[in-house]
Design a protein that fits this description.
By secondary structure, the chain is an alpha+beta fold. It has 5 helices and 5 strands, in the order αβββααββαα. The termini are far apart.
């Protein structure tokens, strides 16, 4: 207890409280300098331009009016947002890695490596379970055409259009 009351080199200091069975602990925190982003590089992108990708990112290199302070959480959020952006464009197997390299004391470069994968075309489009509406009408309402690139948004939009069509025809339980 005497050693604790004297304080410690790691910034922690213990002060005895008025009660015999209580101890108060105070921490002195020295955050030190923050890492600044020197440069953000994008590699492996073909479908989206580098400027389109950087416009979607929150981490940015320092500039005239920007500090460019590094945050691992923001970089991870950017990585996940970019994966979602590629998936919405029909790239289901996109992988994105973001690596940091310290170039000077407290200055880092970020490299975002993208493996886009392939877009998946819709080869065959079938509708099952329909006995009321002509398939040609369903195809027209869906807005999907064979040969188009598969995207989750395209399929969801088609599903909503077909469901609305059935509701309008008096079939609420589609």
């Amino acid at each position: 207890r005497a050693a604790l009351a004297a304080g410690r080199e790691d910034g922690r200091k213990v002060i005895d409280a008025p009660l015999d069975n209580a101890v108060q602990i105070n921490y002195t925190i020295d955050k030190g300098p923050q890492h600044e982003i020197n440069d953000v590089r994008i590699q492996g992108n073909h479908y989206f331009s580098t400027s389109e990708i950087k416009a979607r990112m929150k981490v940015r290199a320092k500039g005239t009016f920007k500090k460019g302070t590094f945050s691992p959480q923001l970089l991870e959020q950017d990585r996940l947002n970019l994966i979602a952006m590629y998936q919405k464009a029909g790239f289901e197997a996109t992988t994105i890695n973001a690596n940091t390299t310290e170039v000077k004391s407290h200055e880092i470069d970020i490299t975002v490596s993208i493996e886009e994968g392939q877009q998946l075309p819709i080869e065959i489009l079938t509708f099952e379970g329909n006995v009321v509406v002509p398939e040609s009408e369903i195809r027209e309402r869906s807005g999907i055409r064979e040969g188009e690139t598969y995207t989750p948004v395209l399929v969801e939009t088609a599903r909503n259009a077909i469901t609305s069509m059935y509701y309008a025809k008096g079939f609420p339980d589609v």
